[in-house]
Amino acid sequence: MTSATATVTHTAALARLGHALSDPTRSNILLALRDGRAHPSDLADALGVSRQVMSNQLACLRGCGLVESTPDGRRTWYRLADPHLATALDDLLRLVLVVDPDCCDGAGCTC
């Protein structure tokens, strides 16, 4: 693998993660799945969103390659596609809180 290929691959992976994290619902789904797999209806209830919103957001996260689904009878389990993602999310949370916990107010960056 050449360094140019690695750069393109890494850039694409970071862009997918950034897209996923740019939406609060998708971020909350990823954070919820750090502890293990879950059913969409349980995630929807826990995050206070409709099942349709949950379905759309999980489809987006699947498309980004960040979650995967496993059918189980009439229900489906979702989990993080790579266990390293849970650690990476924990590291990002620590980094953001160390840098400046009051930097962004949720409506836009105040930095």
Automatic annotation (TrEMBL):
BP-aspect Gene Ontology terms: response to cadmium ion; response to lead ion
Please list the residue ranges annotated as the HTH arsR-type domain: 6-100
Q: Which InterPro entries match?
A: ArsR-like_HTH, HTH_ArsR_DNA-bd_dom, HTH_Metal-responsive_Reg, WH-like_DNA-bd_sf, WH_DNA-bd_sf
Q: Entry's SMART domains?
A: HTH_ARSR
Report a single Gene Ontology molecular function: DNA binding
What is this protein called in UniProt?
Answer: Metalloregulator ArsR/SmtB family transcription factor
